[in-house]
Amino acid sequence: MTERVVLAYSGGLDTSVCIGWIAAQTGAEIVAVAADVGQGGEDMDVIRQRALDCGAVESIVLDLKDEFANNYCLPALKANALYMERYPLVSALSRPTIVKALVDAAREHGASMVGHGCTGKGNDQVRFEVGIGALAPDLKVLAPVRDSGMTRDKAIAFAEERNLPIDVNKKSPYSIDQNVWGRAVETGFLEDVWNGPIEDIYSYTQNPATPRDPDEVVITFASGVPVAIDGRPVTMLEAIVELNKRAGAQGVGRLDMVEDRLVGIKSREVYEAPGAIALITAKQELENVTVERELARYKRGVSQRWSELVYDGLWFSPLKNALDAFLEEANAPVSGDIRMTLHAGRAVVTGRRSDQSLYDYNLATYDAEDTFDQSMAKGFIELFGMSSRIAMGRDARNK
Amino acid sequence: MTERVVLAYSGGLDTSVCIGWIAAQTGAEIVAVAADVGQGGEDMDVIRQRALDCGAVESIVLDLKDEFANNYCLPALKANALYMERYPLVSALSRPTIVKALVDAAREHGASMVGHGCTGKGNDQVRFEVGIGALAPDLKVLAPVRDSGMTRDKAIAFAEERNLPIDVNKKSPYSIDQNVWGRAVETGFLEDVWNGPIEDIYSYTQNPATPRDPDEVVITFASGVPVAIDGRPVTMLEAIVELNKRAGAQGVGRLDMVEDRLVGIKSREVYEAPGAIALITAKQELENVTVERELARYKRGVSQRWSELVYDGLWFSPLKNALDAFLEEANAPVSGDIRMTLHAGRAVVTGRRSDQSLYDYNLATYDAEDTFDQSMAKGFIELFGMSSRIAMGRDARNK
Amino acid sequence: MTERVVLAYSGGLDTSVCIGWIAAQTGAEIVAVAADVGQGGEDMDVIRQRALDCGAVESIVLDLKDEFANNYCLPALKANALYMERYPLVSALSRPTIVKALVDAAREHGASMVGHGCTGKGNDQVRFEVGIGALAPDLKVLAPVRDSGMTRDKAIAFAEERNLPIDVNKKSPYSIDQNVWGRAVETGFLEDVWNGPIEDIYSYTQNPATPRDPDEVVITFASGVPVAIDGRPVTMLEAIVELNKRAGAQGVGRLDMVEDRLVGIKSREVYEAPGAIALITAKQELENVTVERELARYKRGVSQRWSELVYDGLWFSPLKNALDAFLEEANAPVSGDIRMTLHAGRAVVTGRRSDQSLYDYNLATYDAEDTFDQSMAKGFIELFGMSSRIAMGRDARNK
Amino acid sequence: MTERVVLAYSGGLDTSVCIGWIAAQTGAEIVAVAADVGQGGEDMDVIRQRALDCGAVESIVLDLKDEFANNYCLPALKANALYMERYPLVSALSRPTIVKALVDAAREHGASMVGHGCTGKGNDQVRFEVGIGALAPDLKVLAPVRDSGMTRDKAIAFAEERNLPIDVNKKSPYSIDQNVWGRAVETGFLEDVWNGPIEDIYSYTQNPATPRDPDEVVITFASGVPVAIDGRPVTMLEAIVELNKRAGAQGVGRLDMVEDRLVGIKSREVYEAPGAIALITAKQELENVTVERELARYKRGVSQRWSELVYDGLWFSPLKNALDAFLEEANAPVSGDIRMTLHAGRAVVTGRRSDQSLYDYNLATYDAEDTFDQSMAKGFIELFGMSSRIAMGRDARNK
């Protein structure tokens, strides 16, 4: 029986050429799998047909938007995941979503190989290959762009020679990846890190400098999950979509940074993630109100490690699973409402209320209702500071 | 010989009353010490005279602005110190500055006691007392507001009875602390955490929503120290002052949060720190360009612990000293220029350049100059992911 | 109705006196609660009767040995909990066990207060009071030894005056606390930290220097739980008891250290914990075989923080709960057998086998069966080391 | 001019064959560099001559024993470095020592390449290549055993064909690496992890089970450096050598573990490190006496990360340098004497004394000299536990 390759198919030049290229190199049949993670752009049916036209024996389009929102974006929100304290892991979250779909498709279609179109210097190759290896160690991975000399010039030549239905001249000056959680732009004139971004490169967000009226929103969370916006119940996907629109209209969620890639180099990245940034900002403040101090302090380190792991392609890994168990417990009390003003590029929390609040007006107030027993403080300070005080006294004597 | 008390003197009602109150309780002479850490407000000479008028035997005004900037704000900048990832430690940095001045004054004036006017539910009492205990374990600390029943009503009665030169009716609805690194506002209607801040409470920053032209600034750092702004050499103090003005004029640096106090309660705090936020934002991005990935990852945890320690009053402590040694080494390569746009409440980095840059265009580019050897990636991924892959494969078999 | 106090009762002088002392001070009735956590010593019925003879209106003896083993020692084993990398938290684990029993008894007997006999410089007062406050914030805590002047001399006078059935002359030169997880000895000549311990102070362990034959044991774990010894099924309590006996007979588990107390001082402590040390040693090595590298690395930090929290009296706390969730997940694959030789004070692992083993002979071997693809290493090293290599090259140029 | 290769030369089969093999493959001249890091075994002059006999144009023997002890073992001692809490990094410390010597030799002898004889599945290849890349990015690295098909069979054939002066039949059943800091044994029947080690494989240590008299030793440290043994001044090297002898004679320092290699596999390792274990054990306890609690707690995490970095071949890296700065500061007060009994496989601390001691008898004692103010404890507990208490109370209400 002819072997089969499941190919992660985007509809673009590289993966369209991969269909014939891999077939030629391996003699295998190609099953193209295009995942809809909310990237917008071309109609998914057009993409599906293009794969067939390029020679795939099967072409499948999967609507993974809810799956992506619920099982990948939501854990990231529970972690308040921001790689390098800034980047909400846009591409890093979609890759394991796609990996799982590819592996499932390989099982269903009897494939023994999985192919992807990543180059050899990005993070995504790692996310694909470590993920596939974790879920299905028996599947062989093919990466023709990286491993079998499929350069852009060769790809164009291949496409023209075979009359593939792709416009080989259509080439963005940027490399772009987008999904419902956000949008990443890189390369082009951005590779000079002294150059500022220009307005042209943005798509999910309006110019924050344009005068407009602010938008006030109330987000309701239940155990870390956004469950309502302005009182209307929402799914996770709906929450992201609505906030992408509303926060995006206010220019919220633009990021421009130099980033540490897993493969050892630094790269310049511009991101837009209006919904993700609005949600994370809101939830962080709700945590300030509902999560106990020592848990909150420790959780920051957990969030950082979680973000690094997922950025590094280790979504499917034992440490990730154990950190998720920690985060599930830590998010249990994160319920309540956050009121937020979206305006001029900023998402600013202005109010918080929660049945789970640990903020106690009677302990905090300096007014008449004060119930805090100040006589306790002297003893606290004496013992809290004792180990430092003794040590610093010793060191002072040594000087 | 009569014993002496060095009193941390602000010129306000509480510490003015403390002069006579402590004298009455202890029979000691009071040496008032007022520290100028850039808080602005009343003329320091007026404050100096008021202490004498209230009964102090000596009244000293110390200009600690450069000391504060160089020895307290600068280490905080080297740490990118943001407590709870947001608060730049405004009050937490001034307290150890003042503690050191108080201890020095106690030595100079032969005092055996040090007094402060803090209440028993804030962080500052801890910062004063742990700090004094660390630097001078022999000095006794007096805290009349907390420990000897000096309530506000009693203070007013005491002031009126003795005709102290203080306007006892002047009472801000808020509790405010400010210095050159920032400004903190609390209590009043802010104690209801569902209430948003109103424009009135701000002083260091203009309304970010007011339309105005953006301001572009280039900050030059040398080993983590800001040494020039727009090419003009600056001291640390000058850098903060200029950026307070320019970033403040654009509404940059407002914060509104519920915060975990050391004494175990949560409190609502509003901050303004335009210069601090602009400097930290700039330096973080310069670190993205100049600091190696693993060091950068570890440093984030160090910054968090540093911020907690300093917030918790442990400025003078062995762990703080050891973290400073780490940070000094980590900041060594953080040199170069950051270009930043200040506008509408945001400080946005738009360019970075550095002799110490680890961003290598030739490794990062996808253009013809690319020198990255992509053939290395396959082996990297294979071994990098192996431990996870084996473990996840085991776990899949167990299911 | 007369108020009631539930008193943590040990049968010794201090808590016996507390019965009458608290009654005299508060007018309340005393319900004595003695918990059996495997401390051995006096018959629990004798202790029960003594409380009545000292004036308690109710006297309850609770056999908490299984509860202590299953719900306190076992989580500690899952954490491999060793405070300061050495101390297996003997007393720190029994206190929350007792706290929970006291609170349950208070509910059952309608008490509004809980009393304990701790002094003001140890860790146990914190464990009692923070624990009670967490489980039952409404219960008032009484600590007469610390707070109402009940010194030893006054306690003896009180006992003699009232003819309490206690031998007031019986005083160990040491302060001792023991339970099934181990035994702690402090004070006396040990307070001079240059003095070595003498053989007399030990009770759970034989002299390791005495020549004897070694004992070989095989411990079977299932998901971190010891389930069999030498093939015989055991409960957690039975596992500890058997290993206390067998490892104790070989002198295993003695510790002598200077320890950082929560109240800010350092103290000298001698411990014996043969069963605990044998179990932790065995499980650590089983983890080496069954836990993935990155999870294992992170877990070490979790274990340390867990140990600090529990030592510091924060058993009942949100961070502890979240760390437990992490540890539960991390222990899932820790199943298999560990063979261990107990001899001359050492518990030495000599063999490990597990269905969950991640040790793969075919990858590890240098023999003919080797399946490790060495050609992958070059690429791995190139990219793994790249960020360091670039940074060190930069730094070398700067010199 | 003919190119030159500096070859890390051990005198064994593999590196002896490398001389001719590399010459044949590259046409380059070989400069053999043999480093004496205290491995003992063959006379270094014999090894030097052998390289020449095998075709090297230069053969250099470097006595790096003091360099190794002072600049590699000592920083490890300052870190109390134990990878996976057990392994004192024997080979991981010698590799950067040798790397630095190779790079220096390459500069001196005009070499453009460096060669090593490591296989592709161990850690040492990483340590060599990342280290060389960090110190001298321009030098090309050759690894013929891994990259150019130099299997053992081919090496033997090559040696016999060219009559190289090596006994090709001499093959230990184990793979052994040793230096003054310790000795590593792997492979052979140890690859079955259920097999216990046999007495034959040990060389640095006597059988701990053999009855003998204990040995008592007093080690004096100054800022973390061992400076005297039993009152006699020692260099770092002398300290290690003497303790290797004395602790080794008592069977101290044997380790048997399954270890996580950097290349992703688990391997079974047996180590002997009597001097290292004795020194680290002594210094850890001296730290318990002289290092402040919060610094000590943080330092444990630093030690773990330091050990992982060095194990992973990142000795020459920015994070390692910054951690060293932390450790240097943390070790400053670690001065004083530790008395220790070496016996039956155990190094047991029995006494500690130090001018820098933070153990304060008057605070710790329960005797009459007690100066600890117990009245402070109530307030301490109240505020220390408040955040947990409030949160647990909330959670109890939710149930």
TrEMBL record, chains A, B, C, D:
Substrates-to-products reaction catalysed: L-citrulline + L-aspartate + ATP = 2-(N(omega)-L-arginino)succinate + AMP + diphosphate + H(+)
Binding site for L-aspartate: T119, N123, D124
Residues in Arginosuccinate synthase C-terminal domain copies: 174-390
Domain named Arginosuccinate synthase-like N-terminal: residues: 4-165
Pathway info: Amino-acid biosynthesis; L-arginine biosynthesis; L-arginine from L-ornithine and carbamoyl phosphate: step 2/3
Coiled coil: none
Organism expressing this protein natively: Sporichthya brevicatena
Keywords attached to this entry: Amino-acid biosynthesis, Arginine biosynthesis, ATP-binding, Cytoplasm, Ligase, Nucleotide-binding
SUPFAM superfamilies in the record: Adenine nucleotide alpha hydrolases-like, Argininosuccinate synthetase, C-terminal domain
Residues the record lists as binding L-citrulline: Y87, N123, R127, S175, E259, Y271
EC top class, as a word: ligase
First and last residue of the signal peptide: none
Name this protein carries in UniProt: Argininosuccinate synthase
Subunit structure: Homotetramer.
Localization per record: Cytoplasm
PANTHER family: ARGININOSUCCINATE SYNTHASE
Pfam families: Arginosuc_syn_C, Arginosuc_synth
Residue positions binding ATP: A8, Y9, S10, G11, G12, L13, D14, T15, S16, A35, G117
E.C. designation(s): 6.3.4.5
Family assignment from sequence similarity: Belongs to the argininosuccinate synthase family. Type 1 subfamily.
HAMAP family: Arg_succ_synth_type1 (MF_00005)
